[in-house]
Amino acid sequence: MSKGRTEKKKTNLGPIIVVGVILIAGIAAITIIAKNQINKKGNVSNTNGSGEQQVNAVVEEFVATTEDDTKMNTSSNLKEEKDYKGLKISNIQLTTKNNDTVLLADVENISGKDISTFVQFDVTFTDKEGKELGTIPSIVLPLKSGEKSQLNSSTTGDFANAYNFTIKDHKN
User: Fold this and answer.
1) What's the CATH code of the domain at 93?
2) Which sign, positive or negative, has the C-alpha torsion 24, 30, 31, 32?
3) pLDDT, position 172
4) In terms of DSSP bridges, do strands 54-55 and 44-45 run parallel, antiparallel, or are they unpaired?
5) DSSP 98
6) What's the pLDDT score for residue 42?
7) What are the helix and strand counts (H, E) for the chain?
8) 53 with 45: CB under 8 angstroms?
């Protein structure tokens, strides 16, 4: 070769192209898997074939949702008065917002005697078939005979669609 000529370097684009194709295929696979996971949860589906996504609401039979996305339980069974060891639990409200469930109720001592210590119990929510959905440990302050108080129990989890609940002794 003559000294005056410059040599052109050969660039080998083969490995770069292979890496690029692998990256694109990986991103496409992750996108497809993520979309399928969303569809399995019933949140989003693509049903019209045009590429537009449509949101499918999860059916919650015993829930009404407010403007601020608070879920309010509407089950008449859940709202029925309950008795537990001389306590009448009434005016029951169950709500969920941001995956936090709150149970509010009026509690009246109908035992005919003063309750001088805290009363601990577990509130277990069930679905329409009786399957347990979750439990909230609850406490009622000491109450004199005939006195009323407020039950305010909460837990992390969405139990807004509960059909009913039972009250049992608290498990330590």
Assistant:
1) 2.70.50.60
2) positive
3) 74
4) antiparallel
5) T
6) 43
7) 2, 11
8) yes
Residues of the chain with pLDDT under 50: 37-48, 53-56
**How much is the pLDDT for 2?**
53
HEC string of 102-171 equals EEEEEEEECCCCCECCCEEEEEEEECCCCCEEEEEEEEECCECCCCEEEEEEEEECCCCCCCEEEEEECC
List the domain range (segments joined by +) for residue 150: 63-169
Q: Are residues 112 and 128 in the same domain?
A: yes
Is residue 155 one of the residues assigned to a domain?
A: yes
> How far is 91 from 165, CA to CA, in rounded Å?
14
Tokens of 44: 């989003």
pTM over the 0.70 mark: no
Strands (DSSP E) contained in 24-70 are: 44-45, 54-55, 63-65
Residue appearing with tokens 């684009």:
13
Q: List beta partners, residue 82.
A: 89
76 and 26 in one domain? no
The pLDDT of residue 38 is 45
Q: How big, in percent rounded to 5, are the helix, strand and coil portions of the chain? A: 20, 40, 40
